[in-house]
């Protein structure tokens, strides 16, 4: 996942919308059909892309706050974004 515009989302909602645009229909369907417990399996690939491209290792305090806390660890924030994405596509599509 490349964030070529150099802008990072300021909210968990924006982060999920970026992912919906960036991921293929097949990837979104696979995530949608996962059980909640299986989302942890996305930590190393999708989660890493989120952490690296959305400023979670840097100073994106707005996104961290939106995920739960400005002091939240980037791993936990990316997990929150993945879960939010999962909930959104399960209710939207």
Describe this protein's structure.
This protein is mainly alpha-helical. It is built from 5 helices and no strands. It has helices at residues 12-22, 25-32, 46-53, 61-67, 74-92. Helix 1 packs across helix 5 (74-92) and helix 2 (25-32) crosses helix 5 (74-92). The two termini are 22 Å apart. The mean pLDDT is 92.
What's a concise summary of this model?
This protein has helices at 12-22, 25-32, 46-53, 61-67, 74-92. With 93 residues, the chain is an all-alpha fold. The mean pLDDT is 92.
Strand and helix layout:
Elements: H1 12-22, H2 25-32, H3 46-53, H4 61-67, H5 74-92
Helix pairs in contact: 1-5, 2-5, 3-5
Number of strands: 0
**What is the succession of H and E elements?**
HHHHH
Strand content: under 5%
**What low-confidence regions span 5 or more consecutive residues with pLDDT below 50?**
none
Proportion of helical residues: 55-70%
The count of helical stretches stands at 5
**Rg from Cα:** 12 Å
Shape: globular
């Amino acid at each position: 996942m490349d964030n070529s515009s150099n802008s990072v989302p300021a909210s968990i909602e924006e982060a999920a919308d970026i992912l919906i645009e960036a991921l293929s229909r097949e990837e979104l369907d696979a995530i949608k059909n996962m059980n909640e417990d299986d989302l942890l399996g996305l930590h190393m690939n999708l989660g890493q892309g989120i952490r690296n491209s959305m400023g979670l290792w840097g100073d994106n305090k707005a996104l961290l706050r939106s995920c739960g806390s400005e002091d939240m660890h980037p791993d936990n924030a990316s997990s929150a974004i993945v879960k939010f994405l999962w909930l959104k596509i399960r209710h939207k599509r």
